[in-house]
Design a protein that fits this description.
Blueprint (H helix, E strand, L loop, with lengths): L1 E9 L5 E10 L4 E5 L6 H8 L7 E6 L2 E2 L8 H5 L2 E5 L10 H12 L3 H14 L15 H13 L5 E5 L7 H16 L3 E5 L3 H7 L1 E7 L2 E8 L13
Parallel strand pairs: 3-8, 3-9, 6-7, 7-8
Antiparallel strand pairs: 1-2, 1-4, 4-5, 9-10
Length: 234
């Protein structure tokens, strides 16, 4: 599905965020990118989302070098990817429903189909019944769930998350990670950047450890199966 082949990313001033990183991401994988602050976790996510482009090396998606993708093709490419952020990035003047609906409105779906998909996505994250509330009236965990619903409402093949539990306490963090695991169980490929090694270990999956912009090692852990209730197969 996705292959990083000796990818290097340099920023202005010569700062090297990634150095010769090679990584294969297969359909259905659940991968945690771990490492210290500045290790290169977020940079990998930005490259895959085409927020940034590699300086050297190839980034292949379904065999296509997206590092050379024309700018006009980027919006269509990004519609295959759901993105979750640490700070939610919700529109404060819109309801939870409208925040989740935004990708579908941009894609031009009908109002009927949009309503159906948004309600299903909010149901999957346990927020059906709060769709008309504004983000300010929701808890931090609920706001993150709105962000996740928005990321999955367009039924992406890949979901990437950058420190999605960084602002949450331990119990809420585990709930969010279990939610990601349930989406993974119905076929969504997951790539999650996190500094919380213990939490990632409890969930299981592939753990890719980065250090100073290089791939230091890769491990696989197995966690107890999580209940799949609340997530419906695509």
């Amino acid at each position: 599905m996705i292959q990083l082949d000796r990818v290097t990313k340099l920023y202005r001033g010569g700062r090297e965020a990634l150095r010769d990183v090679s990584l294969d991401i297969n359909p259905g994988d659940m991968i945690f990118l771990t490492g210290h602050s500045g290790a290169g976790k977020s940079t990998i996510l930005k490259l895959i989302a085409l927020i940034e482009r590699p300086t050297r090396g190839q980034l292949l998606v379904d065999g296509r070098n997206i590092g050379r993708l024309p700018s006009g093709d980027i919006p269509a490419y990004r519609r295959q990817i759901g993105m979750v952020f640490q700070d939610h990035k919700l529109l404060e003047d819109r309801s939870a429903f409208d925040n989740v609906a935004l990708p579908l409105v941009i894609a031009g779906l009908t109002r009927r189909e949009t309503d159906k998909r948004v309600r299903a996505a909010l149901d999957q994250v346990g927020l059906l019944g709060k769709e008309r509330q504004s983000p300010a009236t929701l808890s931090a965990g609920e706001q993150q769930r709105v962000g996740i619903a928005r990321a999955v409402v367009a039924r992406p093949r890949l979901l990437i998350a950058d420190e999605p539990t960084g602002n949450l306490d331990g119990e809420l963090s585990m709930e969010i990670m279990q939610l990601f695991r349930r989406f993974n169980q119905v076929g969504v490929t997951m790539l999650i950047a996190t500094h919380d090694l213990a939490l990632a270990g409890r969930i299981g999956g592939r753990h890719v450890v980065l250090s100073q912009g290089e791939l230091a090692r890769e491990e696989t852990s197995v966690a107890a199966p999580q209940p799949a209730a609340g997530v419906r197969s695509r």
